[in-house]
Design brief:
It is a single chain. The N and C termini lie close together (9 Å). Helix 1 crosses helix 2 and helix 1 crosses helix 4. The protein is an all-alpha fold and 84 residues long. The relative contact order is 0.20. Helix content is 58%, strand content 0%.
Length: 84
């Protein structure tokens, strides 16, 4: 799967999990720019695990590694590459 496809599908998931967000930019900080809390990010990651058929480790569920939705997309993309 191409990175652009991952980004597009993640944006769709963001719309499903966080419908209150409009015009999401994957490169912007999701806390300061969108006011997203950690529970919402965990919900998004769980939905992404199901959609992309990947698993995040406990370490990867630590939100310290994510500042943007693009950071989440990058981890998903890497996991998909590793599966191939």
């Amino acid at each position: 799967m191409e990175r652009e496809t991952v980004d597009k599908e993640l944006l769709e998931l963001i719309g499903e999990c966080m419908p209150e967000l409009d015009d999401v930019d994957l490169s912007k900080d999701f806390i300061s720019e969108y006011g997203v809390n950690s529970i919402s990010i965990i919900r998004l990651i769980v939905a992404a695990e199901e959609k992309f058929e990947v698993s995040f480790t406990d370490y990867e569920l630590s939100l310290d590694g994510y500042e943007t939705f693009g950071d989440v997309a990058a981890v998903i993309f890497k996991k998909l590459e590793d599966k191939e």
